[in-house]
Amino acid sequence: MSRGEAAATSRYPGNGGRGRLRLMQLIDPNHPFFRAAWRRWLTAILPIAWSGVEFFALHSPIWAVIFLLLGAYAFWVLVIKGPDAA
C-alpha cells in the first residue's frame, strides 16, 4: 500500500479486528447530529444554494462548481443513501 492509499483508508472498527480497510467517509449519515431529517436536508441544500450565489451574484464559477459538487455529494450520502436502518 502506498503512502497516499494509507492516508485515504482507515481500519473499520466493527469487523472484529480483522483489519479490513475501507475508504474514509467525508460525511457520516449515522452520526447522531444527522438523526433529524431536516438537518440532513439542510446540510445538502445549503451548499447547492450557495453555489447559485457564487455563480450569479459573485461571478465566481470555480467556487460555484466546488459548492455544487459538495452539495451533490452531501445530498447523495445524507438524503438518497441515508442512515443505516437500525
From TrEMBL:
| Alphabetical UniProt keywords | Membrane, Transmembrane, Transmembrane helix
Give the superkingdom in one word: Bacteria
TM region(s), chain numbering? 62-80
Per its record, how is this protein called by name?
A: DUF3329 domain-containing protein
